[in-house]
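Q: Could you fold this chain for me?
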Amino acid sequence: MAYSSTAKKAVQAGIELAIPHEMSTPEWAETYRVVDRGARKGRWSNETVPFLVEIMAAADDPLVHEIIFQKSSQLGGSEVINNIIGKRIHQSPTEIIYCAEKEDKATAWTQESFDSMVRVTPELQRLISRKPEENNQKYKAFPGGGLHIVWATSPAELSSRPAQVIAFDEKAGYKPTKEGDAVKLGQARQKTYDGEELTIFNSTPRRCDCSMPNETCGDISHDFERGDQREYYVPCPHCNELQTLKFGGKDCAFGLKWDADAPESPWYLCEHCAAIIEEFDREEMLSKGEWIAAKEFNGVASFKINQLYSPFVSWGKMVTDWLEACRSALKLETFTNTVLGEVWKPVEQIEYEDLSWNLEAYPAVVPPGVLVLTAGVDVQKDRLECEVVGWGKDHESWSIDYKVFHGSPGIEITNHDPETDDLDTEPLSSVWDDLATYLMSSFVGVAGQTFRIQCVGVDSGYLATTVYKFCKRYAAKRWFAVKGMSDPFKPMLSKPTLSGRNPKVRLFPIGTNAAKDDIFAALKVGKPGPAYCHFPDRQPYNEDAHMKQLCSERMVTHTRGGRTYRVYEKVGPNVRNEALDVRVYATVARVILNPNYDAIAKRRLQHTEPADAPEAIDTPAGDEPPKNEPPTKPEPKKGGKVISFRSSRFRR
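A: Sure. Below is the predicted structure, expressed as structure tokens.
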């Protein structure tokens, strides 16, 4: 029986009505997605974040098997994952895995992101099972598939089930475990869907320790380089030339610029015509932007973007964050990752020839700019080495003095305290007494002000009991025992622990990797200002031997048990490194002290008391301040009315 063309068209129309058209992910998000968190709640709008449209659309391209998104924070990377998963659940259900960095982050994503999206999106709410065994923190069942929530620190979960779509969130933070590499295990489970699989990598970059040209690590930057390397180009509103937005800074001819007195109100200079672009121009520029690839497409669509594009963060906030980040290497690393969207590469080695340019003729022992002094002490078999370091605003530093006290540190410490002992009594001499006398001495500034050392870090890796006795005796002066930890992932300073038996003292653990990262980054700063290191043009600083000790180590990457880590090692077998060690301890002493530079500077201007008085020092984080000597009873004021007597001898 033959059907007329009209009948055929009617049948086709009926089929199209019965089988809904499968939307692209951007279309689905704008049609169904409701945002229930953040600053802009309500219906999803692609106009708000136009740079996310092509990334989401790549998930619908059958030729794309990997999507890589290297980005800053506040750019909607997690929302890209949410929209791709939501659209798949609604219109093309399949087996999906979401992998977080750690268990707590997986739980947070489930509760705060996915469950929130489902709760306000009726099309998803109808599909997700309500049975507890099929709707919990680890699994979400829906017709035609399921969503499994796992984390990289327990990758065995990845190897137990096949999946067509896997989303690796904050992938740069993954660490290999004994169970294996989470990414490799996950991608191995996609072989069932060979040719139809989709892997999503979403992450801010982190630290890259690769030193060889072809070496790679787990950072997202290496994944971006595997793809076609797309960046978002926007037109200048004046010359219409396309360009990527870059932070720039004062040393760059284009990018963000600002007045020193008003960093919260910056502007942007076009790299083509040098015209001023205001922040209110950004929205229109984004709407006219386009992704441009640097390499040919190979099945991997890789995207890279920074926070300058974010409609949720002002340029002024970025500049103030930058100025704050310049105060320390750790903050600068975080800014580089989360704001610039770039990988952080720590300084691997310092060449001592470069440091000779930092030598200066100080106008006084303590030059202008110094607000507080700390010291570090290294314990050797036949001597103690000590450096006094001055610190100023934004952790700018000045080497003040370097002393070597010869003698065996193993000699019993005397009871000598030059501030309390009878001056006519001759104390027993020891290298520790010499050190104590030196640390309690004063240092003179340009206007005759006296500075005293406010905190000391003493290495307890050798002769720990003796060091504990020394630090216990002078605990009220903030002289603390410190010890470098072998764990390469330790922060510069951890909460102190009570160590030793007789006596018990607070021992501050040091993350030597983090401390040396900070020092090497500071040594690389090229001009006076935040973090810059000043050295006096006198012995031992003007001797090659001392500067070589500061540069005596380099960063080396090792792999053990499938885990890559990095440590600092000496550049040669017979190289001395005491100068670097004492600088570490003096730096840690500054971190323990946590000085309030503004308060100290204000006090100096008022000339009411010594600028480095203990009252101008913040309490070390996570620790109680040392107890000083009990205050003397104040003299009663003469005259006046007696309110009451508390002594029992006056009671009847």
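A (continued): The chain has two domains: 25-236+287-308, 352-616.
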